[in-house]
Write a structure and sequence with these properties.
Largest sheet: none
Number of domains: 1
Strand content: under 5%
Helix content: over 70%
Distance between the termini: 170 Å
Radius of gyration: 50 Å
């Protein structure tokens, strides 16, 4: 009887140990899965940050190139506007000279007519 009780106690203890070992294995597996998930999460986070940083650098480079193009375009526009103003000024001066000559010829013709009439 004492032997039966001790055998049952040993069996119960063995089953308890087996259940505890199974639970420890389960918990270790869960811990490993959680560590894997955490490692994957941190890897993805770093990749996302690196990608965002890379995108930011690309956007900055494209923006800087666009600004340089804009400055070149503005310089060209200013140059052409100055050329147009110069050409307009020359055209106005030429028109004024023609008009001045016409007035001078008109004045000379009137003077000649007045001399003939007198």
């Amino acid at each position: 009887m004492l032997l039966d009780r001790s055998a049952k106690a040993v069996e119960l203890a063995r089953q308890g140990c087996l259940r505890a070992a199974a639970r420890v294995s389960q918990l270790e597996a869960q811990m490993q899965r959680l560590q894997d998930l955490y490692a994957d999460y941190t890897r993805r986070l770093r990749e996302g940050q690196d990608r965002a940083h890379g995108i930011s650098q690309t956007v900055k480079a494209v923006h800087a190139a666009a600004l340089r193009d804009l400055q070149r375009t503005e310089q060209e526009q200013n140059k052409y506007e100055a050329l147009i103003e110069r050409e307009d000024l020359k055209a106005n001066e030429a028109a004024e000279k023609v008009e001045q000559r016409a007035f001078e010829e008109l004045a000379i013709n009137r003077y000649i007519q007045q001399q003939r009439a007198a």
